[in-house]
Design brief:
398 residues; Chitinase A, domain 3; alpha/beta; eight-stranded parallel barrel; TIM Barrel; five-stranded antiparallel beta sheet
Length: 398
């Protein structure tokens, strides 16, 4: 296995000849479409299909919405030990709210690949956003908790789920202990039917970290209650923030350095982003909004705009800039003061993930002796990333 960075005058054929493989295989593994154009700085996986056994089993999970393309799911499941189906909501009295699209086809397909289908539980309000009032209403009400527990077990038995993932965000600081008790309660009862419970954790770097994302989550208590945890080590670069890497390795390390002081490393999953963002420049706080893109899409944007892909040595992430034409519209014109010349072009900055950045994150799995990783989210296929994982960590037990 090699990771090759495309240089000027490279072609798929010259790279294939260099590594004694076929251009067709490189194109397939890296999802390079005809006419097989390449970007300078693009990372390519040269895959030998040889899986390496290591002493520790690495577990791999991926979150997916029920509207995922069946072909994408079928091509991702061979690399997953767990499929987190996103998601089930609930009411204040503990009634479950199923996904809008029936997910049983995903459950059946995952079992065909010996991958565990996991019910993901989220406290979404009617606006589709995390609702801390809903969380508070349930975790402080024993009757609602019992009803929710009973409904979870009933749905698991009816649909054939094999575990529960608790993904609650924006928990109020005053609900911190109640949430920890809720996770312990759900875990104990899901254990009674033979399955595991995981919990998603915002990426804290200290116990005293301030902010709505952090104060309601007690790393130590939740790590003790759940079978394993997902550290959501992504979204430093996000849709409404300034351009930067989605998961810079230096920031990820800070989270891991704190997490292992509170939670046994063998219960920790590293969060892995499967996406990037395209920002327009200049970034304007509270006005700018980046476009979410896939990793394969990012490379195509670079190719289409003759951009050179760079690799940041601190973030260990790829990025590039390009210029696009700016078509006139009344809506866009409102952004400019009267009598201001309308710009003909727009500058962009793109950050995304590639096999180089994934390789850096995979190094952390071994360095910190982690249980595994969980990917947000798998609705777009990034085959080279999964092939790299498979080559580096042979998944012996699913």
């Amino acid at each position: 296995m090699n990771i090759y960075t495309v240089k000027e005058n490279d072609s798929l054929d010259t790279i294939a000849n260099q590594f004694n493989t076929s251009s067709e295989k490189i194109a397939y593994d890296n999802q390079i479409p005809y006419p097989y154009s390449l970007a300078i700085g693009q990372s390519i996986l040269i895959n030998s299909n040889v899986a390496e056994r290591i002493d520790k089993t690495i577990y791999s999970g991926g979150y997916a919405y029920p509207f995922i393309n069946p072909w994408v799911l079928e091509n991702t499941l061979p690399f997953l030990s767990d499929l987190f189906i996103f998601s089930y909501g609930f009411t204040t009295d503990g009634e479950l709210i199923p996904p809008q699209i029936d997910e049983r086809w995903m459950i059946n397909m995952s079992k065909n690949f010996n991958t565990r289908p996991i019910l993901t539980l989220t406290p979404f309000g009617s606006d589709g956003k995390f609702n801390n009032s809903l969380i508070s209403a349930v975790i402080n009400n024993p009757a609602a908790m019992e009803n929710l527990k009973n409904n979870l077990i009933a749905r698991i038995n009816l649909y054939g789920y094999q575990g529960v993932d608790i993904d609650f965000e924006f928990i109020l600081a005053e609900d911190r202990d109640a949430f920890s008790s809720f996770v312990a309660y759900i875990t104990e009862n899901i254990h009674s039917i033979g399955y595991l419970v995981s919990v998603a954790l915002a990426p804290k770097t200290s116990a005293s970290q301030k902010g709505l994302l952090y104060e309601g989550k007690d790393y130590g208590a939740l790590g003790a209650s759940a079978d394993f945890v997902l550290l959501m080590t992504y979204e430093w670069g996000y849709k409404y923030g300034p351009p930067m890497a989605v998961a810079p390795i230096n920031k990820v390390r800070q989270v891991l350095d704190y997490a292992i002081t509170e939670i046994p490393s063998e219960k920790i999953h590293l969060g892995l982003p499967n996406y990037g963002y395209d920002w327009t420049l200049p970034y304007i706080k509270e006005e700018s909004e980046a476009v979410t893109i896939g990793n394969i899409e990012a490379v195509q944007i670079a190719i289409n705009n003759n951009a050179i892909i760079n690799f940041d040595d601190i973030a260990k992430s790829p990025f590039f800039e390009y210029t696009s034409s700016n078509s006139f519209s009344t809506e866009n014109n409102l952004l400019y003061p009267p009598n201001t010349p309308y710009p003909n072009t727009v500058q962009h900055q793109v950050w995304f993930e590639d096999v180089r950045s994934y390789n850096e994150k995979f190094n952390l799995l071994t360095e910190y002796n982690l249980r595994g990783l969980s990917c947000w989210q798998i609705n777009q296929l990034f085959l080279a990333g999964w092939l790299l994982l498979n080559n580096r960590f042979y998944i012996e037990n699913k």
